[in-house]
Amino acid sequence: MLTRSRIQSRGFSKPPKPPRLRDMERPPQKLARSVNFAGGTSGIAIEKENAVYSEPYRRLVAALPCAACKVEGHSQAAHQPPTGKGRKEDDRACFPLCCTRPGVVGCHVEFDQYRLVPGPAMREQARTWGRQTRAEIRNSGNWPASVEWSEA
């Protein structure tokens, strides 16, 4: 019977796994494309801002305390609600919200289900938390060199 150690000693070791897509930096995506409308007409979809997806930045955000309840050690990078169907928001605008844990419903779930902040105020609160998060990361000197951002 071949054991794992005997297989590896015979040169049958498993090849290394390739890096996961979510762990790699992705270039900005161009979100404009041609579309077909009813009646046979076609046109160009409105170009949206190029979103940036950065795993290192999301990890920095998740290391911060929750923006809503200030609990430490349970944060996730949360995004504001999408501004368009099928569109993921820019990672540079995310902010930390705590996850659900035994006996506690996290602020991230509450936010996503519009219970943490009422509907009309939700987008503005997300922008405020995003600005505070960017300022905190920039002031700590940990801003990733691969992520560009200019406050407008």
Question: What's the overall geometry?
Answer: globular
Strand content: 5-15%
The strand count comes to: 4
Report the mean per-residue pLDDT as an integer. 79
Q: Could you give the order of strands across the largest sheet?
A: 1-2
Range of helix content: 25-40%
Q: List the uncertain runs.
A: none
The biggest beta sheet is recorded as: 2 strands, antiparallel
- Helical/strand content category: alpha+beta
Query: What is the distance, rounded to the nearest whole angstrom, between the alpha carbons of the first and last residues?
Result: 66 Å
Please describe what this structure looks like:
The structure is a single chain. By secondary structure, this protein is α+β, with helices and mostly antiparallel strands. It has a domain at 55-140. It contains four helices and four strands; from the N terminus they run αββαββαα. It has helices spanning 4-9, 55-62, 107-112, 119-140, and strands at 34-36, 42-44, 75-78, 95-98. The strands form two sheets. Strands 1-2 form a two-stranded antiparallel ribbon. The protein has a two-stranded antiparallel sheet with strand order 3-4. The longest helix has 22 residues, at 119-140. It starts with a helix and ends in a 12-residue tail after the last helix.
